[in-house]
Structures are given as C-alpha cells and as structure tokens.
Amino acid sequence: MRQSKLFGKTIKEAAKDEISLNARLLNRGGFVEKLMSGVYSYLPLGLRVLDKIKNIVREEMNATGAMEVLMPTLQPKELWDETGRWEGMKDVMFQFKGRGDSDIGLGCTHEEVITDLVRKRIFSYKELPVSLYQIQDKFRNEPRAKSGLLRGREFWMKDMYSFHTTESDFEKYYDEVKLSYLQLFKRCGLDAKIVEASGGIFTEKFSHEFQVFCETGEDTIHYCRECDFAQNIEICEENVGDKCPKCGGEVFESKGIEVGNIFPLETKYSGAMNACFTDKNGERKPMIMGCYGLGPSRIMGTIVEVSHDDKGIIWPKEVAPFAVHLVALGNDEKVFSSADQLYDKLVSAGMEVLYDDREESAGIKLGDSDLLGIPMRIVISNRTLEKNSAEIKMRAEENAELVELDKLLETIKE
Q1: 3-state DSSP call for residue 369?
Q2: Are strands 207-213 and 219-224 parallel, antiparallel or unpaired?
Q3: Which 3-state string (H, E, C) describes 187-221?
Q4: Which SS3 state, helix, strand or coil, does residue 33 take?
Q5: Over pLDDT 90: what percentage of the chain?
Q6: Residues 301, 150 contacting (CB under 8 angstroms)
Q7: How far apart are CA 51 and CA 43, in angstroms?
Q8: CA 172 vs CA 126, 129, 166, 179, 269: distances in Å
Q9: How far is CA 409 from CA 1, 321, 351, 352, 404, in A?
Q10: CB of 187 closer than 8 Å to CB of 237
Q11: If phi over 0 gives left and psi between -120 and 50 gives alpha, with beta otherwise, what is residue 184?
C-alpha cells in the first residue's frame, strides 16, 4: 500500500481526552479514531492489526477442536428470564424496547444464547463433547471507559463455550485451553501468566485470568518467582514478602492487564435452561459447561501498553499491520524511481509493504515510521543509492545496516 493513499494520517498530538497510553499512540498513528467514550472506529492500519489477532485466535481455538459460530447481538428478555439474569444485568447490559413493546438486550455475554442453541441440537452423549466459539462485537455499559481499547463500551470479544458429559472430560479440555491461550498470547508478543481469581458475575466459583504484567495495569497480582503461584489480590491471603504457599519462596506484587479469563460453569446454565443429554443408561442429565473468553481489541491495546518506546509503537511481527515499511527519502526522481521498483519487487515476492511515497521531509517520514512501529524499515535515499544499497533497520533495534539492492530480497527473507 502506498502511504500517500492511506486513509488515516498520523497526527502530532493525540486527542486531549485520551488518557491511556494505548489510546494516545493508536490515535496518533492513525490506527483508531474515538467516536465517544469507550467506542472506537478502526481505521485501515488498526483493522489490519485487529484482523491478524483474530486470525491467531481462530487458529488456536480451532486447534482445540472448537468450531466457530456467530450468534445474534440482539437478545430477547425471555431467554434471560430462564436464568433469572435480566434484572441483575441492568447495570451492565444495554436494554431497550423493540417493536410490539418487546424487551431486548444488546449482547454483553452469550451464555443464554449458546445454551439455547445447543439444547435445540444436541440430545445424546454420543454428540458430546462440543466446543463452540464466536468473535463478535460486545456491548457493556462500562462506567469507567477511560483506558482506550482496554476497557470499552463496544469491543471485540472471543467467547467460547464447551459442553461435556463428565467433570473429568471438562477438566481435560479446560487444561488444553489453558495451554492454547498461553500459546495464543505468545504469538501476539505477550508474556501472559495464569492467575487464580474470583468467579466474577458469571459464576460463584473460581476462574483463571491471563494477566500481562504491566505498570499501567488495573489489577494487582501477588505471585511467586520460583513457581506458578499467582493470585489476584482480591482473593489472595498472602501479602508481599510472605512465603509462597506452594513452594515457600517469596511473594511479590505486580500490576497486570487481564487479557483473557476462563472458568467452569458446571450446570449453572444447562440446569436452568434444561440443556440435557441422554447418557448410556438412558438417563437425562444436564450438560457440564465451561466458558473461555478473551478480547482481541483488548489484546491490541495491551500490546501497545507493553511494546513501545518514546518514539512510538513496536508491533510484534505476527500482528503488525505490515511486515515492511519502505521509506523514500528526498525528492530526487532517482530515489522515487528506485523505491518504486523495490516496492513492486517486494510485493511480487508476497510481502506486506507500506510504501511511504509522500513528499514530506526526512524528519517527518522517519518520525512517522517509528510511530507506526512496523517491524522492518527499508530506506532508499541518495546516500544509499551511491552504494547501490538500501538501509535496513529493525524497529526494535538501534543499529541499521546497508544491504546491496540485488541482495536485499534474500536478506529480508533470512
């Protein structure tokens, strides 16, 4: 893509009402545009990042045997009345009147909808287990929507639900999803830690959060550096400096950003909604359920919070909007001609390239390149052409190197 044609230009200063670092950098880089508190438009660069995160999520969830579906955002009150949650969710769910004076809610979560879907189509133990997920817009009347993509009123969510005949079968799959989540976050460039937490509004039992340690995080985590002990401070009985209850090591504290959350539902919804199966003995039993959530848009914001410097964003390779940022410096016709040829060559080789063909100063172009955070920058200028070369610099590194043009493609692939 030629940067001169790109919709969504960089700006020097972020909107004054943007407080969080991820919102400021994403706004300045032309990745997102704030419409109102907690609601953002994704511009072409931002949508490319978001789509890549979603694709990673799909690949990892599919690898667990889960299947993707897409459920309605509009949900009838009658379905929520079956579990008794309509009144209890009024502070979170956007609820309104539809035609015929019908009560309708905008989807903030989909336990009722997925349970209704499964009870209509699965009847025998032979059809279980099954795991279904969707990647969809969610809507929550969030009272503190001041953290950019980390806490929104409209946001992207991957919610997955599994259905089982036995507790042991559920636990086996639950542990598989744990590992899948860790792999997923690693591919997104995040070092996530499994943290025990309370069940929240969805279940009275425990849950497992996936936390990325970060100074700007809203959660406080107590953890051990010697073993896998980690608990949200809301449930943790150990204080900083205490002995770890698992290994005897020291307990430390860190702020964290929650990027995912999984928890057992047992028969909370299947029992209330009569989602049952017939076992080998012909007995009807409620399905055992699990819930597995994460936010692709929240992941995007978290990446920016932990992967940046004073110049801008540093995108991990797998989620970067483009793999290469080709920058032509100077207004010399020879420079642009050489850059045009190199751009065509890179694209023909199947590479994702953003080509800065704008008539701007070197300072503006290089500054914008740092702000956008694309992993590799290739500069063509009169200085590099004097040596029949291009300058290659990785965004996360300080040093640059000159590479001869005829060896450039081979060097990039390495």
Answers
A1: helix
A2: unpaired
A3: HCCCCEEEEEECCCCCCCCCEEEEEEECCCCCEEE
A4: strand
A5: 93
A6: yes
A7: 12
A8: 18, 11, 10, 11, 20
A9: 18, 20, 10, 13, 10
A10: no
A11: alpha
* Range list for CATH 3.30.930.10 in the chain: 3-309
User: What distance in Å separates the CA atoms of residue 303 and residue 300, rounded to the nearest whole number?
Assistant: 5
CATH number for 322-413 (one of 3.40.50.800, 3.30.420.10, 1.10.3720.10, 3.20.20.70): it is 3.40.50.800
The answer to whether residues 23 and 38 touch, using CB atoms and an 8 Å cutoff, is: no
pLDDT tens, residue by residue, 255-289: 999 999 999 999 999 999 999 999 999 999 999 99
Task: State mean pLDDT over 396-413.
Answer: 94
Report how far apart the first and last C-alpha atoms of the chain are (Å, whole number).
Answer: 23
Helix (H) or strand (E) holding 304: helix 296-306
Q: Work out the angle between the directed axes of helices 296-306 and 21-28 (0-180°, nearest 10).
A: 90
**Lookup result for tokens 């060559």:** 345
**What is the rounded distance in angstroms from the CA atom of residue 214 to the CA atom of residue 305?**
8
d(CA 68, CA 114): 12
Q: State how far the Cα of 414 lies from the Cα of 408, in Å rounded to an integer.
A: 10
For residue 385, count other CB atoms closer than 10 A to its CB: 18
Q: Are 159 and 293 in contact (CB under 8 A)?
A: yes
Q: What is the identity of the amino acid at 141?
A: N
* Residue whose tokens read 């190197």: 401
Q: Which fold has domain 3-309?
A: BirA Bifunctional Protein; domain 2 (3.30.930)
Residue 49, token pair as written in the block? 């990042």
Question: Residue holding tokens 């019908």?
Answer: 102
Contact 182, 212 (CB under 8 A): no
Looking at the chain, the domain(s) classified CATH 3.40.50.800 span 322-413
Cα 153 to Cα 32, 37, 40: the distances in Å are 15, 8, 9
Q: Tokens 């940022």 identify what position?
A: 325
**3-class SS string, 393-413:** EECCCCCEEEEEHHHHHHHHH
**Residues 6+ away with beta carbon under 8 Å from 350:** none
pLDDT of 203 above 50: no
Q: Which has the closest alpha carbon to 81: 59, 103, 61, 107?
A: 103
Its pTM stands at: 0.96
Question: CA nearest 294: which of 156, 174, 110?
Answer: 156
The Cα–Cα gap between 134 and 33 comes to: 25
Residue 303 tokens, joined: 């990446």
